[in-house]
Amino acid sequence: MWLKCILVLIAIAGSAQASHFRGSFITWVVNQTDYNYYPANYYASLVKVHVKYGASWRRSDGSSHCSNSSIANCQFFNHGSWSLYRVYGSGYPQSYYSTFSAGFYCEKFSVDTDFTIGSNKVTIYVPKSYTYRAVTSSCCWIYGLRSYSSSSWHVEAIISLQKTYNGRVYKINTPPQISHIPIIQHNLYSSNYRTQSYILPVYDPDNDLVKCRWAANFSEGGGIWNSRNGLVVLSSKCVLTMFSSPYSHYANYKGWQALAIMVEDFEYNNVSHSYEKRHSIPLQFTVHLHMGNGSVIYGKNDTHCTSPYQHHASIAPSPTRSLTPKTTGYPQMVSSVPTIPPVQALDGCQYYQVLSEADRASSYYDWSSYRCDRELYGWYRFMGSAGNRMQNTCPQTGSYRCGSYYQGWLQGSMPSQYEGAVPRTVCFSTYYNCYCSYTQSIYVKNCGFFLCLLAQ
User: Fold this and answer.
1) Which class for 29: exposed (0-12), middle (13-18), buried (19 or more C-beta within 10 A)?
2) Do the Cβ atoms of 389 and 444 come closer than 8 Å?
3) Burial class (CB within 10 angstroms; exposed 0-12, middle 13-18, buried 19+) of 413
4) Which residues of the chain have pLDDT under 50?
5) Nearest by Cα to 204 from 335, 351, 341
6) pTM for the whole thing?
7) Cα gap 212→436, rounded to integer Å
8) Of 412, 303, 431, 310, nearest to 365 (Cα)?
9) Integer angstrom CA distances of residue 256 from 145, 259, 288
């Protein structure tokens, strides 16, 4: 079996300062041990929820003026609060429960494009077996967006502490995790017509199937939920694709574009043999569309600042926050920042997606339609009707195998387990010969089963 086509292979309501918002996300984790046991009788009915959130603001706003010094010294920026509601039934009615800080530690900033990005991790203690809605909202998004400029912003997430059954065990399913707010600077001008793809910084600790979609209403994306344009395409694989031209065709699109995306995970049920949606996590950010004059970004991809801030929601007062700087010197100035840490850094044996479609098998062909895998990025494992690995010999000629005009097959042998991730080349040949019309570099890894790392 092989992959198809040349382009493959690769509710928290709170408050904050107004008119400076550039994006946010929120997600959470519950340790199963924390859930099942707590040593103090007074807290026996409580569970620790580890909340991570990120935010981006206009840097010239006095409360968000990040610098190299503030990053190095772990300066904390107090920026409003999240509100926590207990939800009953299918979502409503709900009752106010508590609040916690929406402040953050700065991670990255830009002087010329005037933004600050940061994040924080907070531990809250809440009663078990309930569902909560965390939400923050106010006005406004930054002035000057290409569409919906200065509109209201709204970010919310559902924190469900009710165990679900996947056909094997009852447990609290962990939602998708977002490592940081993406920084995307896309040049609309190119020497030729081309597309550029950007992998969003998301993964799932439970190894559930992760998909992305555009926000569908105000509760999911605030006032900019429908602000996208035709130059930005989002795949369900959480990849943004944007277009460029050798002429000034897209010059009228330049500027800042706000995007609102929902990141969702689907757990496989071993009884029904189907995927069941568990969570929807919001991710909102801005994209800089320019004609060859991107900004200089200072900072790093993840903060090393820590805060032992723990909040006993509606039970105990918030303890005093103490900060412990864990960085030395100033961060390195870089001309661009990757959208996410390299996918090679993820442990593919734990974090992979599955390709199981029957039309990937070497026995499948279809003259009537062509398919393409240009949207696949990350670690992938072949399973089920697709077979158990990518084919490493030229497929049979004389037919459109895999339903694709160009069939991709692996050149070289499969690695042993001790070799780790090894580079390999994929050859794309047409249906009538085995000549490599195009090639693509990938990584292959042996985890006891074979994985392919598909990325640009």
Assistant:
1) middle
2) no
3) exposed
4) 1-18, 38-43, 301, 308-345, 456
5) 351
6) 0.66
7) 33
8) 431
9) 5, 10, 5
